[in-house]
What we know:
2 copies of one chain form a homodimer.
Chain A: E1 22-25, H1 27-31, H2 41-54, E2 58-63, H3 83-90, E3 98-104, H4 110-113, E4 124-129, H5 134-146, E5 150-155, H6 163-174, E6 180-184, H7 192-208, E7 212-216, H8 224-234, E8 238-241, H9 255-261, H10 270-280, H11 293-300, H12 306-313, H13 322-330
Amino acid sequence: MGDEQHADNGHGSWLTYRPEIKVLDCTIRDGGLMNDHRFTDDLVRAVYQTCVSAGVDYMELGYKNSKVQFPKSDFGPWKHCDEEDLRRIVGDNETDLKLSVIADAEKSDYKTDILPKEQSVIDLVRVATYIHQIPVALEMIHDAHEKGYETTVNVMAVSTVQDNDLEEGLRVLSESPVGTIYLVDSFGSFYSEEIRALTKQYLEVCQASGKQVGIHTHNNQQLAYANTIEAVVQGANRLDATIAGLGRGAGNCPLELLIGFLKNPRYRLRPILDCVENQIMPLRDSMHWGFDLSYMLTGLLNQHPRAAMGYLGTPEKDRESIVKFYDEIMDV
Amino acid sequence: MGDEQHADNGHGSWLTYRPEIKVLDCTIRDGGLMNDHRFTDDLVRAVYQTCVSAGVDYMELGYKNSKVQFPKSDFGPWKHCDEEDLRRIVGDNETDLKLSVIADAEKSDYKTDILPKEQSVIDLVRVATYIHQIPVALEMIHDAHEKGYETTVNVMAVSTVQDNDLEEGLRVLSESPVGTIYLVDSFGSFYSEEIRALTKQYLEVCQASGKQVGIHTHNNQQLAYANTIEAVVQGANRLDATIAGLGRGAGNCPLELLIGFLKNPRYRLRPILDCVENQIMPLRDSMHWGFDLSYMLTGLLNQHPRAAMGYLGTPEKDRESIVKFYDEIMDV
């Protein structure tokens, strides 16, 4: 049992852990989608220090997306993660915490913007791709791999992908040098039972090719944490989470819940509690993430949260009723 | 598949439903634990109308607890659910919605306070018991059964009960005339995998004796909804939920999420959305329920939420830090 998160019967067996499990904090990266990546250096530094103190394995700071498509004047530094911006926060990062960035297929000038590993504090490059962009993603994976980085691929919006296409996509990715393939619930629409079946499907492909399975969830139906631990129980070993669930729309799996669940003594909850209270919750005055009925409805309908974000973007006094939003969203 | 909530593979099979599933709204009952059962008649009537419109099967209005132990001067009407209070809201309840009350073992003068069924609008009497009170609970079940009511028994705090005791308790209850035995996660401490194992255990006992299994959850670890649907998938057919999760401490499984999940055309989400927005959310100015780090910590430690309720009961400006609360609660 020493290498199991817990035993099959589930009850009274919470005393062991699975050392292969690695946690990636993406507070600044996913949260950046709610403020055009304009966090203060102090906030980013506080999250970095929290990740170091909490024993988290990876911290993702932001995107490596194109400065042509996303001009520097329109976004904060974490849309591009220039080396000088990273080093302003982490120095040479002489810690056990590894650093990560993500690059979107067709939105990244990765060939020039991602430096060779020896010139960067970045350890891990993650490639985010929709199913139809997999050929682009494969080139990005090869590029990052050849530059010396660890790599993952995050296949987005799989809740809208046909079974055959997903099978074929996973097969192609499994033949690449990518280290981890992530199951991503972009719309927060999956129930735990679906996560169970999909994790098994991903694992089958990944185990045959020596790769890990990762999980990245959204909280539209208050299942982000539940779905993450369901994937863990099935065998996923790479887990995304964010402090206080900060992330796009309904947010992500809260890191504080996940660390409470994992029994690896490497992880410490106390610094995360402090960061939630003193760093992240104060952001709620200016940033609005987390569960809302409008996100629940887009999740139920397996839609991008766009409509809900528009709804919630209207000042509260001018906002229409949730019933009216429901009527509109159902009228397709 | 017509009688299944969904098929085993879980993926792409959300088009069927299980007609045996019944939903019980306990917004007023569990929420009453946060305001000494002092809801206005207008609010109780609005929740009643919502349950009728939404096609919910049962609505629980409150407790049938002792007026000696809990004087009428200290509590609102839903601590005792006198017939005249009930009828002021529901008249003769000429609807398809059944009405429920709950009575706590050792806290109820049930022999006198629960009238014969023909004199009452109540349909269902639920008995709440700790494991050591089962002999009392059995007498209460017999009393209610003989008076003509449907009955359930809610065995509380099973996360603190030894396996052998639970097995024996379930066996004794299965020999009573009770209709449903509820799995209750009083402290919000169970993970979905534990719910899975326990639901199976309850089902084994209940199926042999022709009873149903129910599920009642709390949201300390943001798993109330996830654990409820996990129990559904395993075979639980009686589901407790509350509008906007209103309930003690971290609250309960939100009815709006549950109705979204269940595919029975009998249920309608629209009136619940309206009730959340216009009736329940305005209560937040004076009532504080729902997820909080302090509830997460009592849940993690499998403790009664008492310490967290005390912590949150302190005015915010005088409240100690969450890290200090963590240090204290860990120092046992």
